[in-house]
Amino acid sequence: MFVEFKRGNTSDPFYNDDQLPFEKLFETTCATRGQIVLYSTRLQTYQFRTWAFSVGIFGNVARLFRWDRAGAIVSEPIPYCKRGNHDLAEFLRRFDLMDRVQRGWDPTVFDATREEAAAFDGTIEAVVGEGRNVLLKKLLDSVGDKDNYPRRRVEISTPDGEDERVVSYIVGRSIANARSPTGRATRGFVAMSKGTGKLVFLKDSWRPDIPGMMGEAHWFEKVKGARSVSAFLHGSDVRCVVVRRSGAARTPGPPTNPFQHTLTNLYSGDFCGVRKMVGYIHYRTVQCEFYVPLDMFKDSKHLIQIMYDIIVGMSLLSFAQLPSLNPPQPYRTYTTGGSSIGTSAPRTS
What we know:
By secondary structure, this protein is α+β, with helices and mostly antiparallel strands.
């Protein structure tokens, strides 16, 4: 949780009058909103979170914020300086009693053990070798130095969601980060399967929560083996349950939805605005080919080939053209919320 302090009673960037727009559009108040949005973006980028809290102190009033990938819920102004008002102190007291999951930490991500981190770094060094493949070396260097970027263990449920089918992956720094606190917030990681010790590509994102819209795994299965489509392993919505390694009890999420999903959209209809806010569900996929940012192409010919492959791959995913699929090619690429290009690294499955 972060706290932003602003002096002056006019620094509150929101109106509290139903007859006026909610957001104040003065230059200073727009700058204040931009500042707290930036803080929220950084917080949700560098930590594995499902949501986050923050506090804004604007002169003699305070506001509470709850951020997720759909937007932010903003409280009414709290006159914390007024004698007898304990709302802000009560929030801080309750926040102190919360556990990590209640504060918004992702319950499926853990600090890697020393042995897991060492195995991950050793596998990276073995694949890079002497660094003759410059593109591959840049990709694997993206995991960052172990002293500055702690290794994490990410646990992903297989489609059936059974405890014994949870797969663990070790990751470092992400290849690219989201620049907004809302939306898909796609992040890609070079990851090591803890079970096999092989390197894979793990994509973490938030897919739109729209009835009837299927996750990427559904469509990848339909075009499996097609040219210009990545070699897919598995993918699923991220569940709210924590799988205890001791085999003991699990911690359930909200009873109405077993998956990590946004809440801001559920309350957006109660306030001004004619557009319905779209919610998001946390989603992860794993491919057995590596991917690097689109701007790491080698030359103009490589870039043109990449764009051609993107068009072909997206047409297959969009229309699920199953007959007469071409055999896999060394380079494959796809785009869903972020562009990437396949490397010539060895297949890992």
